[in-house]
Design brief:
binds fe (ii) ion; 234 residues; Ferritin; mainly alpha
Length: 234
């Protein structure tokens, strides 16, 4: 598994975090967890979303012809799978089960499969931005000790994922004409707004339990998105 990886600009941060993770060990699952039912239902969906094998993304990254970037994408996928693993253990600690499938995840995966690397990264970045706001809400307002611990650990990775995607996107759109960049940015923003509204509706009860209203969730997540889009296109 990734035995040939030599630290490079893309993969270095992932390698450092992987080393840190094995040094820090896992949250204390045996402490158990008391989760609000709305948070359980919400986490079950996010757990499915975090658990993809990333095969299509890895293939797209491989086709880009940069070995270090490809290695970084593999490490990125492993990091997301670790989020899925922790969420499954958190749910288990709270006496809840994981789900195998959720419609929003399969729509996302299907859409991404139709696309090349840049468009796949644009869709993925929307999910990363949502994750940043979502886990922040859980970490700040979730209350339960294990939930807060897992959310903080996931966040610590997610804050690096957005710059990882935007850096590659910036490179990908470097030679795109100004009018095309403008149009792509507008379409991307409309897609992000649609996704964020759907997430706010679908996970509204869970974030409300954490003290964030649906409206506030949409506004603050869009703010993160706008900052992110500026990183790519400015
Ligand atoms: Fe994640
Ligand atoms: Fe992520």
């Amino acid at each position: 598994m990734g035995s040939q990886v030599e630290p490079g600009v893309w993969s270095e941060g992932f390698l450092l975090r992987a080393a840190q993770r094995s040094e820090n060990g896992d949250p204390q699952w045996s402490a158990g967890s008391e989760l609000d039912p709305a948070i359980v239902r919400s986490l079950q969906k996010f757990q499915v979303g975090e658990s993809g094998d990333g095969a299509h993304l890895i293939a797209n990254a491989a086709a880009a012809g940069d070995r270090d970037y490809e290695a970084a994408v593999r490490l990125f996928v492993a990091e997301e799978q670790n989020h899925a693993r922790m969420l499954a253990l958190l749910l288990d600690a709270g006496g809840a089960q994981t789900k195998r499938w959720h419609w929003s995840d399969s729509v996302f995966v299907r859409l991404r499969r139709l696309l090349g690397l840049r468009l796949e990264l644009m869709i993925l970045t929307i999910a990363e931005v949502v994750a940043l706001r979502y886990y922040r809400a859980l970490a700040d307002g979730g209350g339960d000790r294990l939930l807060v611990d897992v959310s903080e650990r996931i966040l610590a990775d997610e804050v690096h994922h957005v710059p990882f995607q935007t850096r590659r996107l910036r490179l990908g759109f470097r030679d795109t004409s100004a009018p095309a960049r403008f149009a792509i940015r507008q379409i991307w923003r409309a897609m992000a707004a649609a996704v964020i509204v759907v997430v706010a509706l679908d996970h509204g009860r869970a974030v409300c339990v954490c003290g964030v209203s649906r409206r506030e969730f949409v506004i603050t997540t869009m703010r993160i998105f706008d900052d992110t889009a500026a990183e790519v296109f400015s």
